[in-house]
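Figure 6 in text form: structure in, sequence out.
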């Protein structure tokens, strides 16, 4: 694998200042989007690599067999049904009800999803995109029920991970594994293509323990309507749809969100955040203290060694 030389990471230098007191600003990205040079040995096609580099995301379908997908769906349903047995800090409910919205540390709660996270079709692709060994910064199971599923407002994940977790550079990727069919109607992931190339330095200081409210409704660290309007006018808005088993890889800085779901069809996905081993988190750049470990893996990370073979053996 031919890897682009990363910018040196200087611990005491903040390359992406945010949560500003004197107004929002936009700066250019200072890191590559695709950290590896494509070759015939790459785990993705040249077209996928170029789409990811240009648009900030790519969609991969049919990479898991049908019975593998069914095993994941069954494991997801069991976790949701047993939600009250899961430790409270790993569980987030809907803003206006007790319905399960998110289960964090998915790889801890399910041996099957732990195996999925380490699969070459997931971690191997992430390692190629980031040009480095990877580890799990965060994993979770998201549910958006029919009729009542709430929206996720527009945001850059990196903005939060940088400000509140201490992730130094844009060298992380999210993999959203669809566990239900996602159409254009039931609140699918929406992305602003090309937005990965700029960083929105948001306005507003981080409140203490901001994660307790932001996991239900994010209000700090989000771009202004004027900025979102400008970026959407320049590049449009894409939505990622596909049958269960589809995987959406998107750059840590790509602006994304989703609408509420008022259709009868629920939406759920398993979500894995892969960070480059060389990009392990430090101290928060714009918060008094780091978020809890269930939101951001801290300490000395262990690299994932991508595994081959079918996940049903997990």
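Output sequence:
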């Amino acid at each position: 694998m031919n890897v682009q030389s990363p910018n040196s990471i200087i611990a005491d230098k903040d390359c992406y200042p945010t949560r500003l007191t004197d107004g929002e600003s936009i700066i250019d990205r200072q890191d590559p989007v695709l950290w590896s040079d494509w070759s015939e040995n790459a785990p993705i096609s040249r077209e996928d690599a170029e789409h990811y580099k240009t648009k900030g995301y790519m969609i991969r379908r049919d990479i898991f067999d049908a019975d593998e997908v069914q095993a994941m769906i069954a494991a997801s349903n069991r976790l949701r049904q047993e939600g009250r047995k899961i430790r409270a800090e790993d569980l987030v409910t809907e803003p206006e009800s007790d319905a399960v919205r998110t289960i964090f540390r998915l790889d801890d709660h399910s041996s099957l999803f732990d195996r999925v996270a380490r699969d070459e079709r997931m971690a191997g692709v992430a390692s190629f995109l980031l040009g480095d060994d990877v580890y799990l910064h965060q994993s979770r199971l998201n549910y958006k029920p029919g009729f009542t599923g709430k929206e996720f407002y527009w945001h850059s994940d990196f903005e939060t991970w940088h400000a509140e977790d201490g992730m130094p550079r844009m060298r992380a990727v999210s993999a959203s594994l669809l566990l239900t069919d996602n159409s254009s109607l039931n609140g699918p992931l929406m992305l602003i293509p090309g937005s990965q190339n700029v960083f929105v330095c948001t306005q507003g200081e981080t409140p203490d323990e901001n994660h307790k409210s932001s996991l239900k409704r994010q209000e700090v660290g989000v771009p202004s309507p004027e900025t979102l309007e400008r970026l959407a006018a320049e590049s449009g808005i894409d939505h990622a749809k596909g049958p269960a088993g589809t995987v959406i890889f998107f750059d840590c800085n790509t602006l994304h969100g989703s609408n509420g779901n008022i259709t009868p069809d629920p939406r759920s996905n398993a979500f894995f955040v892969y960070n480059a081993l060389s990009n392990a988190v430090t101290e928060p750049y714009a918060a008094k203290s780091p978020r809890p470990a269930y939101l951001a893996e801290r300490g000395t990370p262990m690299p994932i060694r991508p595994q081959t073979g079918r996940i049903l053996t997990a």
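Caption detail: The mean pLDDT is 90.
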